[in-house]
Amino acid sequence: MIWNVEEFTRAAGATVERLAAYVDESQRGLPPVIARRPPGELAERLGLARWIREGGMTPDDHAGFLAAYLEEGTRLHHPASLGHQVAAPDFPAALADLVHGAANNPMAVYEMGAAAATVEHEVVRWMLEKAGYGAAGGGVLTHGGSLANLTALLAARAAGAPDAWTEGVPGDLALLAPASAHYSLTRAAAILGLGERAVVPLETDPLGRIDVARLPEALDRVRRAGRRPMALVASACATGTGLHDDLRGIGEFCAEHGVRFHVDGAHGMSALLSDEHRHRLDGVELADSLIWDAHKMLRTSSLAAAVLTRRGSDLDAAFRQEASYLFYGDPHGDGDSGEPGGRGIDSIGRTVECSKAELGLKVFLNLAWRGERGLGDYVARQYATARRLWELGRERPGFTFPYEPESNIVCFRYGTGDQLEIRERLMAEGSFHLTSAEIGGVRHLRATVMAPATDDKTLESLLDQVSGCRTQTFGST
Question: Which residues carry this modification: N6-(pyridoxal phosphate)lysine (predicted)?
Fold first, then answer.
């Protein structure tokens, strides 16, 4: 059935109108930040069974459905949204999603989306430059940081065990990572055939940061056990705490001892755009590979993540397959050689995905609207707001903070009781969305400052609500 363009125009107009109102009321803190109606009740309210069976939705029906749908979700633009490391997306990225939804150019093969492939190619070039990688570097955008970490470790496996793709994974490979590393690293080790037991925990300080001074004994222990280190993983910043490993110290150790170095910079890599905070990433250029999520601090919608390698050939070696309907000609090069059809910037040889969304367009449009400086200013502001929470909270009795924040992630405790009960109370009320993390085996509340609307009034209200004063000062009716 061909598109009814008039119907699309009406439905799209209603969608934009409803979304604009949704973002506006969310930014002003008017409705609850989170809704958690039971699934059965929610399905009934949305009329899911009827629409699935009968169809027939009209633009007017769609407008009503969308209003109810948005009311029942989590409002990431809300000042009280302090939960997960997911962007309150900027509107240029939302426009990119609309374009992709209509055009649908899965661009891992250039001929399926020449403009999309070229945009991603240039965005990746920009990211490589910011990371300090030279012209020999390579990269690709993926649907999320977990897939980016998996891709980076595939490249590490190819470097350490070149025959693994055809002959299987040798049993002596090891992955060195702190216990504070993102869960996707252990998951990737299992997917890659190493097994979870191949992940060797590194010694850390009490806050979970890699202890550089103890790396020699860790490496010696691994090698005496008859294992080869496939890669050592550091965090910039750690998911739980927002704290950074010493990238320069770790990078220099890895270079000296011939160990491949990977940096999980999913959240913190955007600090490269901030003059005030880029020092946190000193030494990242020493990494053999890194990941960088745009759907966190570059404010794109989910998902858009980069995996970058200091040598593009490492990424090309990650996948070795034959498929005559896709792989032909020369897939390498920089795309400027004048090769017919643009085969030089096919990304299919560097990623799990073939039908890959137009991810680069989201990053590009945010850059085109805000510029590097605008995005860097956003990073600096969110980091400053997190620090402000730390400053305000330390002045109040009953609050304890285990560290001074280095990013926009802050962990804290109130009193000695069950912190998860506090979190559940706030979420049941819809007043605040917090997450939680363990530090040194002790459960803490965790705030991640992502929404630009979060300000001092929000933070004071949060501290009041956590302590039981139950004062809410943001928003108005």
Answer: 296
Determine the angle formed by the axes of helices 114-131 and 359-394, rounding to 10 degrees: 40
Kindly report the CA angle at 17 between 15 and 23, in degrees rounded to 5? 95
The C-alpha atoms of residue 131 and residue 148 are separated, in whole angstroms, by 16
Give me the residue label for tokens 């040598």.
Answer: 311
Distance, CA of 215 to CA of 246 (rounded, Å):
12
The SS3 assignment for 387 reads: helix
The 8-class DSSP code of residue 347 comes to: -
The answer to whether the predicted template modeling score (pTM) of the entire model surpasses 0.85 is yes
Residue with tokens 């609307």: 453
Q: Which of 251, 260, 246, 235 is nearest to 311 (CA)?
A: 260
Express each pLDDT in 176-213 by its tens digit. Answer: 999 988 888 999 999 999 999 999 999 999 999 999 99
Other beta carbons within 10 angstroms of residue 231's beta carbon come to 26
pLDDT digits (tens, 9 = 90+) for 265-321: 999 999 999 999 999 999 999 999 999 999 999 999 999 999 999 999 999 998 875
**Which two structure tokens, joined as six digits, stand for 321?**
């397959």
What's the confidence (pLDDT) of residue 293? 97
Domains and CATH numbers, the chain: 1-31+35-72 (no CATH), 101-363 (3.40.640.10), 370-467 (3.90.1150.10)
Q: Is 196 exposed, middle or buried (0-12, 13-18, 19+ CB in 10 A)?
A: exposed
Alpha-carbon distance 146 to 144, whole Å?
A: 6
- pLDDT, tens digit (0-9, with 9 covering 90-100), for 26-77: 999 999 999 999 999 999 999 999 999 999 999 999 999 999 999 999 999 9
Distances 198 to 24, 156, 159, 174, 258 between C-alpha atoms, Å: 48, 14, 17, 5, 19
Q: What kind and span of H or E run contains 262?
A: strand 261-264
